Amino acid sequence: MTYDLLITDSHVITPKGMIEKNIVVENGKIELITNDAPDCDKKINGSGLVSIPGLVDPHVHYGVYSPIDQAAISESHAAAIGGVTTMIRMFRLKGSYKESLNKHLLASQNSHYIDYTLHASIFDDSQIAEMQYCAENKIISFKIYMNLGGDVGHVYMEMNPGEEKLIAAEVNVTNELVEKIVKNAASLKCPVLVHAEDYQECSCGMKTEKEKNHDGLNAWSESRSPNFEAKSIQIICEYGRKYDCQIYFVHIGSKLALDKIKEEKKKGTKIFVETCPHYLTLSHETQTGYLAKVMPPIRTNNDVQSVWNALQNNEIDTIGTDHVANQLKLKLGGDDVWGALAGFPGIGTSLPILLSEGINKNRINLNQLVNLTSTNSAKIFGLSGKGSLEKGYDADITMIDLKKEEKVSPELFGGFSDYLVYDGWNLKGWPVKTIVRGTVVAEDFEVIGKPGYGNFVPRKLS
Fold first, then answer.
1. Residue 18 and residue 159 share a domain
2. What is the rounded average pLDDT of the residues 224-235?
3. Contact between 374 and 387 (Cβ < 8 Å)
C-alpha cells in the first residue's frame, strides 16, 4: 500500500515521551508511528527536527478590527507561520446569535488556512436564552467578561461581514448576569471562560490614577490591581461550585490570582487555568511606551517568575495568546496610556517565545510544552482527534528546529497588525513546518497552503 505522507527521522513527542520513529499519514489522519518506511506519495525528512502536535490556540480575537472574511485570511496566515493548526475565536456579537452566527460562519468558511472554531461571548439575558442554540451549532463554550460594566462597559464587537466599520457597544455584565450564565452553561454541560476583573473596582482604580495624573504601564497596572482579579475569581468560583460548572480562567498573570485559584480549587471548584506568553516575558518594570497595554495588565518581574513557577509545577493548563488583530493607528489612539487600546497581536510569536524562553532555557520540557499548547486545550474544549500524535488522530503536526534563530518582525507573519510587542527580539527555536490534517500549510516562514483549507471543527465534550 502507498500512503499519503511519510515523516522520517524526527524526534516525535508522544504522550509517553520522545521517541525516534517515523510518522505515516493517510487521509489526513496519523496511520502509523513506526520504525518502518512504507511507500508514500510525499516524504519529509525530519532529521534534526522535533515533531509536536500542532498548536491549539484557545484564545484569539479577530474579526473585530477588520471584517471576518479578511481577518480569517490574515490571522490564520500569521497562525500558520507560528505553528498553530487550530485557532479558537473569542466571538463577540452585538444582538442575536440566531440572526448573525451563520452569517459569520459562512463569511469565514473559505478564508482560513488552518482549522478553527468559536467560543460564544454572552453579554445579556437575550444571549443567555440563545446559549442552547449555540450548543446545537457545536459552539459549546461561553465567555464571560466580568471586567465590562458600568462606566467601563465599552467594548468593540465583531464587524459585520464585508463591512469595515467598527461596532461599539456598552454592556453591563453584573454578578447577577454572571450567575445566570454559569447556571445555564452548567445545564448544557459546557465550560465558561472567564475574564476575572471586578469592573466596579477597575473603574474606581482608573479614576484614582487619572486624578493623580499618572501615566504609563505602571499606572495601568496600579489602576487594575490583582486584588480585583482575586475578587472576581472568588465570586465566580462560588457560582461554579453551586451549579457544578467548569470554570476556565483566561489570561492569568499575577501571583495573587494564581494563589486565589489554588485556594478555590481546594474548595472543590472545577478550574482550568490559562496564561499567555506576555505574562511570561513582559513586566511594567521593564517595558516602555504603551504597546504592551493589555487587560489584565502585565505585572511585576516577580509576577513573571511566579507564572513560570506555576508552569513548572503544572498548575497552569493551557497557553493562549489573547491575540488581538489591531493596528498602530488604533492602538496608540491617545496621548497617554488611558487613550491607548488594550490588547496586541501575538499568535505568531507564541511558540517561538516558549521555545526560546522556556525550552532552550530549561524552564519547561517538551512534554509540558505539548500539554500547554495543544493536548490540554483539545481535551478541555472537545476537539476530539486533535492535540496528540497518536494513531487515528488528525495529522496536525508542527515541526520545530530548536537551534534556529530569527529576529521578530511584524512582516514575518503577514497578519493584519503592523506592529508586535516582540519586534526586534532575537529568538532561538522556531517552527519550520506546519501541517494541518496531513497537508503542509506553512514552511520556513512562508504559507504554502490555500485559504479555505481550514475547517470549522465540530466539538463534543465527553
1. no
2. 98
3. yes
